[in-house]
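To: structure desk
From: M.T.
Subject: fold request, one chain
Message: Could you run this one when you get a chance? Sequence is below, nothing fancy, just the single chain.
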Amino acid sequence: MTPPVFAHGHLRLYLLSLLDERPQHGYELIQGLGDRFGGTYVPSAGTIYPRLAKLQEEGLVTKESDGRRTVYAITDAGRAELASRQDELADIETDVTDSVRRLADEVRSSVNDAMRTLKADLAAAARDARAGTEPPRASGGGSAGADTASDARTTSRVLLHEAEAALTSFRAELRSELRSQVAAARLHADAVELLTTRLDEVRREVTAALRR
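Reply: Done. Structure tokens follow.
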């Protein structure tokens, strides 16, 4: 079982340390934590806001409305608690570093597993193309044509798997980036328009290339 990123009570103290740097919106705190973890961990709003509400109840932070957003700021009482727990905060920073390394290892492991699965799929596709799909070889010059057709099918299957893997990787990476921007309330219409426009261009270009 994967251990938690923060031990009990540590996220609360870490939020105080982030607010000690400057007042921030909730989504800025979420983005800041994601940046500290290199994108390997991005806390949900359901994780952050209840803790901010608790800190406010304890008089350690305040919140003020800034248009449609709420800005959180540390109080003198929050700074006093932070100062009294500097040793603990240093340990948390060490734990964060360890968590980043662990999460990075997990990401690498999942990518390696995906690559091994892809290689196995490619090998299976090649075997499928060779076994049972080849017409019986005739004597004389007919075998060369059969071999060529079989090789073409094998190559096409391998290329199909490569194309599907590229599409899957592109979708996963871009989806993750889009969600992180949404979490930080930074997703803009021009970025979505750029995405849809370029994807339409690529779709048309690739379709034309495939039909040549």
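Reply (cont.): Helices lie at 10-21, 26-36, 45-57, 76-84, 86-130, 142-183, 189-210. Let me know if you need anything else for the meeting.
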